[in-house]
Recover the amino acids of this structure.
């Protein structure tokens, strides 16, 4: 459903991500791991057509359901983003406007993609919050982002991203700002969403433990290139890459249990 073919991404004509290949099937979860600056965010922003700093895909192609995303017009992107392809960020609280209650932002978001009344959009928002097991959706809709905990804000972000049952969900460090218990809950909820909606997910994470726990496929990046890639078990148990082995050794244990 998503295919990156020999993709090179450059900032100001300097190639930063080189020869990136990935093929993701419907309903699968893929993680991209690697140290800071390896190009993880660059890759998923390219998929969403939202590269910052004048970044451009200079070689290769990105296909979504067989169609090149690189040729999309502004209008085509407007229809696609937030509906078929959506994104959640490291701290959704930081992405939302702090001075407006969640409900107003949620309603506005829904109404940019669907022609429904404010009341219906409000109800739809509450339904999504409840799906993410956020109790008293009405209270949350009336809250300002800063009034919620980091974990709640992240669930709100996921609820918003899932509103239109995207075929592809991109998540950049979705749990890194959270404590380990909340991290585990959010990861499990994302897996449930995949099971329920058959959404394909790409997760960017520093944490190979998280990647190992939730992914079908893992891509390891270093300095803008893929240094290792394979099914979860391959990466965890049979990788020949010294770099991957180093990352695995660095995974901390949680409550005495190692995730990998
Ligand atoms: N807006 C930008 N303008 C110019 N160069 C950029 C920009 N964003 C990223 N880069 C370049 O791309 C490289 C990879 O950055 P990227 O943000 O993709 O890494 P990352 O793997 O997501 O790192 P982190 O784990 O710290 O988030 C950077 O080292 C930098 O050289
Ligand atoms: Mg990043």
């Amino acid at each position: 459903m998503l295919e990156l073919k020999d993709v090179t991404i450059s900032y100001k004509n300097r190639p930063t991500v080189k020869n990136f290949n990935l093929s993701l099937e419907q309903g699968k979860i893929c993680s991209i791991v690697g140290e800071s600056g390896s190009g993880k965010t660059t890759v998923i922003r390219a998929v969403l057509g939202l590269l910052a700093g004048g970044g451009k895909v200079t070689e290769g192609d990105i296909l979504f359901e067989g169609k090149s995303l690189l040729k999309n017009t502004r209008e085509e992107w407007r229809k696609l983003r937030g509906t078929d392809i959506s994104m959640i960020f490291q701290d959704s609280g930081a992405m939302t406007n702090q001075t407006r209650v969640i409900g107003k932002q949620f309603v506005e978001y829904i109404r940019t993609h669907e022609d429904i009344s404010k009341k219906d959009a409000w109800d739809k928002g509450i339904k999504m919050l409840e799906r993410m097991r956020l109790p008293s959706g009405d209270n949350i809709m009336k809250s300002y982002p800063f009034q919620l905990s980091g974990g709640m804000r992240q669930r709100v972000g996921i609820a918003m991203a899932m509103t239109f049952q995207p075929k592809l969900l991109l998540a950049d460090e979705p749990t890194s700002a959270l404590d380990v218990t909340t991290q585990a809950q959010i990861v499990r909820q994302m897996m449930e969403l995949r099971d329920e909606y058959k959404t394909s997910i790409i997760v960017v994470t520093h944490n190979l433990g998280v990647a190992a726990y939730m992914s079908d496929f893992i891509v390891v990046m270093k300095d803008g290139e893929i240094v290792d890639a394979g099914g979860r078990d391959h990466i965890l148990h049979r990788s020949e890459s010294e770099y991957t082995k180093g990352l695995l050794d660095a995974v901390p244990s949680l409550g005495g249990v190692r995730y990998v």
